[in-house]
Recover the amino acids of this structure.
């Protein structure tokens, strides 16, 4: 189950709040707003799961990233 999804101030995030069965699917919606951006860059999205990592005893963390190229008009 997804516990929390976080990103920068330039992203609005929404995700499946209910538990996801093994081999099931969920959705993470990311809306990006480039209004305050001046340069192209990469942005990380941190996905914290309620599942516990057996190696360290902490909640699992998955990180995804996306890049964008700004086009000047």
């Amino acid at each position: 189950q997804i516990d929390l999804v976080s990103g920068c101030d330039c992203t609005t995030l929404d995700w499946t709040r209910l538990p996801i069965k093994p081999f099931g699917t969920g959705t993470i919606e990311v809306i990006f707003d480039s209004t305050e951006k001046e340069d192209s860059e990469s942005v990380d999205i941190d996905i914290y799961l309620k599942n516990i990592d057996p190696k360290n005893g902490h909640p699992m963390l998955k990180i995804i990233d996306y890049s964008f190229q700004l086009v000047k008009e």
In short: The mean pLDDT is 93. The two ends are 42 Å apart (CA to CA).
